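Regression test case RT-17, inverse folding.

Input:
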């Protein structure tokens, strides 16, 4: 059993992928070739914004977004500690300080109720993350940001394709950033990413920033990056984008089926507390998750993972140590500032999840988890 099955996806689009790659090999425009522009146009239309700017990775997309907003040394950016390090890493690399605000215990995303108290005179942006495939409460976060005249940068590396009240992730704030890392909901065959915005001036800055700050050949009005999306990756993503809506539907169906199976055995949603053997994800009203991961909570994670591994069922932990407990971000504040993140980090466990997960495999996973956790007897 595979945690993420990319081979089944490839088998269905193999000929189209090979044709796309061969076209690039024939025209030879490997950097900023026509496929990049074509992909940017289609992605902007998919998200529902005016501009998409391809980037070399989701990490570079976050970096370029903050550079476009002129965030730098001495500034502060509010974000979540319960995410991959890239979110805060890019803040720190610019000389700014990540200010960690605790998460909502139900959605695991940045808790809007705690954001306002973290805003200071040095705050320059708010960066929520769409963890596990569900958008953060962007309406509430945007409202707080508007009151304080702050931009919001959506880190949608895991939530691309998700929606909130019918609006797509990456189109919910001043700038949206995503990743096309192979395991993401829309993944390439290498690194890649993109920034999204309705602001034409910001889009122009982002295009300069990804290409060494170059406005035209050998004319550099700003310091920039080598952060261009490869033409070959754009070509691959063009074919993957064609099947992406169907894959979103499959992800939703499989994610909901997981929850139905677990809850039928006595698992509970996150809204019910943390004492149950298995706690399933809660998707907030009006939201559609792409289930980048299907993540449950269990009490004795090591025991559960070992028992599943013995049965040939892979698992993963995203993320075992909140960022504010990482040595590089040890500001001497202690985990008591973010107790929900600290507690949930000890309990989360991600199960195999992809659009091609068969019912039989899913049944086997649920049965194994239920037996390993005591949700049902062996």
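Golden output:
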């Amino acid at each position: 059993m595979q945690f993420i099955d990319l081979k089944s996806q490839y088998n269905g689009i193999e000929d189209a992928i090979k044709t796309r790659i061969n076209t690039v090999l024939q025209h030879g425009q490997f950097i900023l070739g026509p496929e990049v522009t074509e992909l940017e146009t289609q992605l902007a239309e998919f998200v529902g914004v005016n501009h998409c700017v391809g980037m070399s990775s989701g990490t570079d997309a976050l970096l370029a977004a903050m550079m476009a907003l002129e965030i730098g040394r001495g500034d502060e950016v509010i974000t979540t500690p319960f995410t991959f390090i890239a979110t805060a890493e890019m803040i720190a690399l610019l000389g700014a300080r990540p200010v960690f605000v605790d998460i909502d215990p139900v959605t695991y995303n940045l808790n809007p109720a705690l954001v306002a108290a973290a805003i200071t005179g040095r705050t320059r942006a708010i960066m929520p993350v769409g963890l596990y495939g569900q958008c953060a409460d962007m309406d509430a976060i945007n409202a707080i940001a508007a009151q304080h005249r702050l931009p919001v940068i959506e880190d949608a590396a895991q939530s691309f394709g998700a929606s909130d009240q019918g609006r797509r992730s990456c189109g919910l704030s001043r700038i949206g950033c995503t990743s096309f890392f192979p395991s993401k909901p829309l993944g390439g065959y290498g690194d890649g990413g993109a920034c999204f915005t309705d602001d034409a001036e910001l889009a122009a800055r982002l295009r300069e920033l990804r290409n060494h700050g170059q406005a035209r050949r050998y004319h550099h009005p700003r310091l920039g990056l080598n952060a261009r999306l490869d033409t070959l990756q754009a070509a691959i993503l063009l074919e993957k984008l064609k099947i992406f809506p169907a894959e979103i539907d499959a992800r939703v169906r499989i994610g909901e089926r997981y929850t139905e199976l677990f809850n039928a055995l006595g698992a509970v949603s996150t809204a019910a507390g943390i004492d149950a053997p298995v706690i399933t994800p809660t998707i907030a009203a009006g939201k559609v998750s792409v289930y980048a991961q299907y993540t449950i909570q269990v009490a004795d994670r090591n025991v559960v993972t070992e028992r599943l591994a013995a049965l040939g069922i892979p698992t993963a932990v995203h993320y075992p140590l909140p960022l504010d407990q990482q040595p590089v971000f040890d500001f001497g504040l202690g985990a008591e500032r973010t107790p929900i993140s600290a507690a949930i980090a000890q309990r989360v466990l991600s199960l195999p999840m992809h659009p091609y997960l068969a019912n039989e495999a899913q049944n086997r996973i649920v049965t194994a988890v239920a037996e390993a956790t005591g949700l049902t007897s062996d």
